[in-house]
Amino acid sequence: MATQVLSDSLKSVFKHKDFKSKLQREAVECLHEGKQDVFVSMPTGSGKSLCYQLPAVLAKGITVVFSPLIALIQDQVLHLKSLSIKVETINSKLSASERKRVYSEIQTLKPSIKLLYITPELAATPGFQKVLSSLYKRKLLSFFIVDEAHCVSQWGHDFRPDYLKLGSLRKQFSDIPWAALTATATPHVQEDVLTSLQLHKPTAIFKTTCYRPNLFYDVCFKELLDDPYSDLKSFADSALSEQDSSQGEKGSGIIYCRTRDACQEVASRLNRRGLTAKAYHAGLKPDKRDEIQQEWMDGKVAVIVATVSFGMGVDKASVRFVVHWTLPQSMEGYYQESGRAGRDGKPSFCRLYYSKLERDQVFFLIKKGIKEKKGAVSSGRKNEAIQSSYEAIVKYCEEPRCRHAAIASYFGDSTPKCTQGCDYCKDPDAVDELVEHWRRGVTAGHNRSVTAGRTYIAHSLSSGENDELYGGGKWGYERKVYEDDYDDEDDREGGSGEERAFRCKLIADEFKKRRKGKQSLTCPPAPQLPGPNCRLKEAANYLHIPKLAIKVREHCFGLLEEALKSNINQCAKTEETARLLFDMESTSIDIEHSIFTNSKTDIGYKTAMLKKVGEVKSSTSSGSVFVWKRASQNSTATSTTASVSRDALQDIDQAKQRKLIPRNSPHLYLHYSW
Question: How far is the CA of 525 from the CAs of 226, 438, 548, 672, in angstroms?
Answer without folding.
Answer: 21, 21, 12, 21
